[in-house]
TrEMBL record:
<comment type="similarity">
    <text>Belongs to the short-chain dehydrogenases/reductases (SDR) family.</text>
</comment>
<protein>
    <submittedName>
        <fullName>SDR family oxidoreductase</fullName>
    </submittedName>
</protein>
<keyword id="KW-0560">Oxidoreductase</keyword>
<feature type="domain" description="Ketoreductase">
    <location>
        <begin position="2"/>
        <end position="179"/>
    </location>
</feature>
<dbReference type="InterPro" id="IPR036291">
    <property type="entry name" value="NAD(P)-bd_dom_sf"/>
</dbReference>
<dbReference type="InterPro" id="IPR002347">
    <property type="entry name" value="SDR_fam"/>
</dbReference>
<dbReference type="InterPro" id="IPR057326">
    <property type="entry name" value="KR_dom"/>
</dbReference>
<dbReference type="Pfam" id="PF00106">
    <property type="entry name" value="adh_short"/>
</dbReference>
């Protein structure tokens, strides 16, 4: 029996991680801001799968919230074996349309929280000689895409770098880079999605299945779908200037209304 801590567990990809890990018999620490939703989720997962589900209501855009989760990750009496840094959000609008405070909030949640929670978790995992961290990034990490893409590019670079630094310690790290996934993400950001072609959408449960299989294989980067693997292969061959143009146009077409 092992314990997994999932940030942003109450919706979308985080909820899919929680369902799958509970089904596999792992105890869970569920983290998000909405305490009521967390409590309902914990009860449901406990009743359905017989696992222990602890809740931790924390806002990862604040120092106190990050500190509370880091403290839980550092608890050596109740160790966490798998950390899924998943909490995240989008901001509607292009650069300069988005208030600077919202961009900074994104960096706090996508970058600072991921750094501090990864450090808290891997510290104790290294002492025990085992553990795993999945940091949820995005395919947006590979194209010029404002603060969102830049924050996810940081997640990929950071995770792959740390994975190499900790190689041989028994602690695995992996950056997960999905394409469009049907979750609450776009609706919460007030982004229109009607014109995103059907073939581009991924199912959250399928993304989690692919991610856990890539983690088990020891991969430090997971792009969980052949369609997006092909697209990212193509992106690598495309000059940055052209990629920037395509990304900006796609942002207009598929992104925020
Ligand atoms: N959906 C996509 O197309 C897509 C594609 C690529 C990557 N991603 C990435 O996947 C991750 C999960 O996104 P999703 O699509 O599953 O989004 P989602 O359905 O909107 O779920 C977001 C989750 O994060 C929590 N959360 C948001 N802000 C938080 C904060 N400040 N502190 C603590 N928890 C917070 C939310 O709960 P509370 O509101 O209760 O806090 C919720 O549980 C994100 O990192 C996102 O960037 C998404």
């Amino acid at each position: 029996m092992t314990t997994a801590l999932i940030t942003g567990s109450t919706a979308g990809l985080g909820a899919a991680f929680a369902r799958r890990l509970a089904r596999d018999g792992h105890d869970l620490v569920l983290v998000a801001r909405d305490a009521e939703r967390l409590a309902e989720q914990a009860t449901e997962l406990h009743d359905r799968h017989g696992i222990e589900a602890e809740v931790l209501s924390a806002d990862l855009a604040t120092d106190e919230g990050i500190e509370a989760v880091a403290t839980r990750l550092g608890d050596r009496r109740n160790p966490v074996d798998l950390l899924v840094n998943n909490a995240g959000f989008g901001n509607k609008g292009r650069y300069l349309d988005v208030p600077l405070a919202d961009e900074l909030r994104m960096i706090k949640v996508h970058v600072e929280a991921v750094l501090r929670l990864t450090s808290a978790a891997t510290g104790t995992m290294r002492e025990r000689g085992r553990g795993g961290v999945v940091n949820v990034a995005s395919v947006a990490a590979f194209v010029p895409r404002g603060t969102y893409g830049a924050s996810k590019a940081w997640v990929v670079q950071f995770t792959q770098g740390v994975a190499r630094d900790l190689a041989g310690s028994g602690v695995r790290l992996m950056a997960l880079c999905p394409g469009f996934v049907r979750t609450e993400f776009h609706q919460r950001a007030g982004m229109g999605t009607d014109n995103i072609p059907g073939w581009m959408w991924l199912d959250a449960d399928d993304v989690v299945t692919a991610a856990l299989s890539d983690l088990a294989r020891g991969r430090s980067l997971s792009i969980p779908d052949p369609r997006y693997k092909a697209l990212m292969g193509l992106a690598k061959l495309t000059p940055r200037s052209l990629l920037g143009g395509i990304s900006s146009k796609a942002g207009r077409k598929y992104g925020p209304r």
